[in-house]
Each structure stands twice: as structure tokens, then as C-alpha cells.
Amino acid sequence: MPTLLIKNADQLVTMDGQRREIANGSIFVRNGVIEAVGYDVPNTADEVIDASNCVVTPGLVNTHHHLYQTLTRVVPGGQDALLFGWLQTLYPIWARFGPEEFFTSAQVGLAELALSGCTMSSDHLYLYPNGAKLEDTIEAAKTIGIRFHPTRGSMSIGESDGGLPPDSLVEREEDILNDSIRLIDKFHNPNAGSMLQIGIAPCSPFSVSRELMRDAALLTRDKQVMLHTHLAENDEDIAYSLEKFGCRPGQYAEDLGWTGSDVWHAHCVKLDTAEIDLFTRSKTGVAHCPCSNCRLGSGIAPVRAMRDAGVNVALGVDGSASNDAGHLLSEARQALLLQRVQNGADAMSAREALEIATFGGAKVLGRDDCGSLEVGKRADIAIWDVNSLEAAGSWDPVAALVLCGPFTVRDLIVEGNQVVKSGNLTGVELGKVIEKQNQLAKRLAE
Q: What gap in Å lies between CA 95 and CA 276, rounded to an integer?
């Protein structure tokens, strides 16, 4: 049983129940599980990592992404559009993707996340043109080495039926449900330490039918997996719900079984007080995507109100076509800044933002085996060198992670395995991945 010792950390940020921060602390890991934290720790192991001049935190958790969009960053025509117009610009481009594009873009997106300290990420893939499958992204995740929660997304209402996506990108609802069952049965691992869990995720209430929303919820409960979609993202979203469904998005979600601890919704920028109360009572999670919300002019999500009410809130980078980055610490910083802009300078601390990025993400994804550095938890650990240029002169190295940096992790451990070592990925040759990505992007642009 392999062992790992991380020793001499300047600050060990546990995110445990007491939110302890341990100076000069150490962590001992056996077979991917944390056995000791603090000072009473074995002084030798199969592998030893010296964390002097470093802050050690739980790995960050990303709860909303569209990995395929790393191939369509800063596309002209979509740079200055609101959500619906932005989608209509990009759908025809995405329709030209195939398995190669989905695999490579997922590698790039997950590599970017890993280097930003992320040990676990979801993905929302809702279009499958030209023979693409969810397996394309699953195989890419294996090469990077972080925990992966891909969701089988879908769209079933095309332009000819009043929806936003072109007809070429929608699927028959029976096929969507059958493929969801196939993927769960083949890949989903519900056990502690799982590296791969499958969720079900119709794209949005404006791209699938009421029947598919309801059937997806029923299937989720039958298979005991997680359920995900976009909800209440901007004013257009609210107007569509009121016109088409005669109610606000929160009521629509509740009516169709889309609330509960096994559900998390992306964005939720426009939730009102009643919807926040609904999410609190039902333990429904929220993936807050602050950079994307700014980029698309969607607004400022009521994160302070949600947190105060007891809603489970996590962070998501969203797709790189609407961000245009996939950096989780930047999301934590932006979340803090937006809440202060809206609610005052004391609205959110750096430590609260870091908590949302770690423990909060694991909780929203239903992973009580991850998210904190405690005995019995999985060894998902980020090591940050605070002897760097970005942190030079900082008096509080923990707050510095959110407010000034460093923004690249020195070492990243997932299930006790080193995924990033001295700032470099261990599973792939990043230069070759980037070269392939740029070739594919150029081909799409031409």
C-alpha cells in the first residue's frame, strides 16, 4: 500500500468542521486516503513532498463546464453578444465537431483546470455531432488524471420546433434516455474514491421538452445519479419561462422533480427570494459561474443571499466560449469581487471564497469523501508556492491565493497520485496537446 508524506507546509488549510489552518503542518496518505493531518504524523513514507514556503489546500472543485468549448474561445461575432445571440453564433460551428475535437478540447480544458489546482471537475456535454460520444471526453480525462463527473447532456427541440439549436444538433428523446442508461451502466462508479461518475443533464428548459425534463428526473432517481441543467441564467431566460411555461424557472424545476440534494443548477443569476427558499428547503445545489455571467452580461448571482439562506453553492468556470478561461481560482476571486460590488466590502472574505471553491464544490457534487483535508477523506491536495512573484509581500498567504496568487499550482495530488509536479502535468506532454488544439481550431475557423 503506497504511502505519501507532505511535510512542512507553511499553512495547511483543512476546510474541516472547524476550518482549521495548521502552521508547519503535515499530511500522511496511505493508498489514496488521508491517515493523519497536523503534527502527529509519521515522518517517513514511500514518497515525500517538502511543502516549505507553500500553502496546502484541498483540491479545488469545478461544478460546471463545457469542455468542448475550449476550441471556440473569443470567436468573432460572439464576443459581445448576450446568451441567446451568442448561442446562435456558435451552434453552427459546434455542429462541425467530431470525436477528435471533443477529445482534444477536453484534454486542454482539464489540463487548464489541473494547473489551476482543480482535482475534480464536472462537464456538461449536450451535443454529439458526427459520431461523437461522451466516451471521447472520458478518455481525455484519464490522460490528465483528475476526478471526472461528465454529464450526458441533450437537446431535443430544434429551430423548426421553436427552439434555439439548429435541427442538426438535436436528438430523439428516446435515444437520449437510452444512451443515458447505457453510459451509467457502463461507467458510473458510486463508491468512495470514485474517479468517474455519470450524471444526466438536459441542456436547459428552452432546448428540451417538459416530458424529457420529467423523464430525466425519474431516471436519475432510478439510477441514483446526479441531475444537472442551466437555470435562471439571465433576463431572457426568465422571460422565456414566463411565456412558455407560465411560471418562473424555480417553479418549473420543482414541478418536474428538479429539486433535491441530487440536483445542481448552473448560474441561477436571477433566482428570487421564493426560489432561494425553495433551494434551501430542498437542498438543491448551485454552480456559480461569475466570469461567464460577467462576460455575457447576465448579471450578478445572489450568492450572498443564497449562502445566508443555507443554499449549497459551488463554483464553475462554464464553457471557454463564454469565459474565455477555465481557471478556478480566478472564479473564486471574481465571486468575491462581485459580491462586494453588490453588497459591500465585507460581503465575502477570501477564505469564504476558497471554501466555496473546495468544500462547497464537493458538497454540491455529492462527494462527501472529498473537499477537505481530514482523516478518512481522499487525498486530493493542492500545494501552492507562496514564495512566488504574485504573492511577494503578502501578509496573509491563505487570503493571497484568492486575492493575488499564485494562480498556478506547484503540485497537485489526486487520490494520492501526483498529477502536477513542479508546475508540470505528469500525464501528458502539454506542448503537443496545445499544438493539436490549435490545428483543430484553425481548421474550424477556415
A: 36
pLDDT digits (tens, 9 = 90+) for 47-67: 999 999 999 999 999 999 999
Spatial contact of 259 and 278, defined as CB atoms under 8 Å apart? yes
Sequence-separated contacts (24+) of 351-354 with Cβ below 8 Å: 351/19, 351/398, 351/399, 352/307, 353/402, 354/13, 354/15, 354/57, 354/398, 354/401, 354/402
Distance CA(233)–CA(12), nearest Å, equals 36
Q: Helices in 296-355 by DSSP H: which ranges?
A: 303-309, 328-343, 350-355
Q: Which triple of cell numbers denotes residue 248?
A: 418562473
**The 3-state secondary structure of 252-294, one letter per residue:** HHHHCCCCCCCEEEEECCCCCHHHHHHHHHHCCEEEECHHHHH
pTM over 0.85: yes
- At the second CATH level, the architecture of 3-58+370-425 is Roll (2.30)
Q: What is the pLDDT of residues 254-267, one digit of tens each?
A: 999 999 999 999 99
Identity of the amino acid at 343: N
Where residue 78 falls among pLDDT bands split at 50, 70, 90?
confident
Cα(181)–Cα(116) distance, integer angstroms: 33
